[in-house]
Design goal:
The chain is mainly beta. It contains 1 helix and 6 strands. The protein has a single domain, classed as Beta Barrel (OB fold (Dihydrolipoamide Acetyltransferase, E2P)), CATH 2.40.50.140. Helix content is 9%, strand content 65%. Strands 1-3-4-6-5 form a 5-stranded mixed barrel.
Amino acid sequence: MSLRNRVTLIGYTGKEVEIVNFEKGKIAKVSLATNDYYTNAKGEKVEETQWHNLVANGKLADIMEKYVQKGKEISVEGKIVYKSYDDKDGNKRFITEIRIDELVLLGNRQG
């Protein structure tokens, strides 16, 4: 395990887990919202939400499929992966994903 590309996030899932099956296994995909709070120049408390794309495979994909639903609070560790592809119109698109290798189920969003 390299510490050079390591990320830890705690947040709430924004949608149901998407499972993609392949011949040799499956991957689980879900979005995760993390919130940060600060006070702006007017003294108002501001909430800023960042969205992260999570991807897991193997046993983690099985666990996510079974136990993670929209609104579930989770903690993940993994690495940042950058990908690019050309869309149907020939435009270059970029994707940033967190490839997770550790998952902790925390709770559900209240309210």
